[in-house]
Write a structure and sequence with these properties.
By secondary structure, the protein is α+β, with helices and mostly antiparallel strands. It folds into 2 domains: 203 residues, no CATH class; 190 residues, no CATH class. The protein contains 17 helices and 10 strands. The protein has a 6-stranded mixed barrel with strand order 2-3-8-5-7-6. The chain is elongated, with a radius of gyration of 32 Å.
Amino acid sequence: MFHPLPLFVGLRYARARAHRFFVSFITWVSLGGVAVGVAALIVILSVMNGFESELRTRLLALTSPVRISALPGQEVDWNALASKVAPIPGVKVAEPYAELQVLAVGQLEMMPLQLRAAAPVTLQELQPLLVEGNTSGMNDGQSLILGRLVAEQLGVAAGDAMTLLVPTVTGDGVPEARLRQFTVAAIFEAGIQDHDGSLAFGTPDMLLALGAARSGSVGLAVESDDALSAPDLARRVRAAVGEDSGRVEVRDWTQEHASYFRAIRIEKTMMALILLLVVGVAAFNIVAMLVMVVTDKRTDIAILRTLGAGPATVAKVFITQGLLIGWIGVSAGVLLGVWIARNVGPILQWLNDVFGVQLFDADVYYFTQVPSELHRMDVLLVAGSALLVTAAATVYPALRAASISPAEALRYE
């Protein structure tokens, strides 16, 4: 005899639904609902991961993984500090860093700009973001790189001249403003409005000459090969600065841009919960299907009980049937979701070619392609959560089947 008995009977019930159309239809709807929910959840999480990775790449092109800046009123020997930081494992280079708030003077209006130092490594990372011009003339100390929105608002292009109003402080401590003219060497576009509409880059020597040490902030930009380990690197840098720790502040890029990634994490969590409801609806269908099967199989349950099967054995029969439907649906959803996540680009291109549907218009969005980054842990979490939901859906029908009295079920048979 086939053992265990609950597995044998449960599999037999699962295969014997073809002659009962309504129960069979609900079974297929339940299976399809689980598969669609799991696939949608995997695809959405992969696309969100892709957007997060793309955002991280663009943010790191505009800032350094770790920055060391002087606290207000403190004098720091940056050359000596750089010699302490350079030998730290994971540090690629420690470059001069400076920032200064200025006013850009246009033909019709003025707008505030954050002028940031662009050392050689930063210039190299900016190259992929350039949409106009080049950085070949940056060493002359008279050239700037502007964000696209800044250039549009000021009405300038690469090669044009522009004027900056630079706040300074005289030797007597009296604030004054100076007008300086610069050339727009290039224009970048990061796809982030806060940066494209407020940032400009110049050389470190230029910012020091404009008075960044007095009116702005100066320090060291610590570059690393692994930007994701920036928090650990920042801790090692804090330990290495020693007696200078009371005069400087060490921050990593995850602290400066925490709001962006916090928003993405919240969106991922909410999308996961919403799409998990699709699996929950499918689980309710499994409950309805199993309840109808229990009602239909009352006589069979009574016979099993009279032959010596206990309530636990009867419950396991229907748990087996429900788990089989749930596992098949989850497996199909995982396969479908992984395939779509790995082929989002070609699928959207096919939709565009066949139906003329363009999800991201290049005239409106910076991202013209949907980025997708499939994480194994996301797939495992989605599959595990869906299996738990479908397993929970089998509990009530199984308990109902186990509570059936053989005498009551056979009374009218």
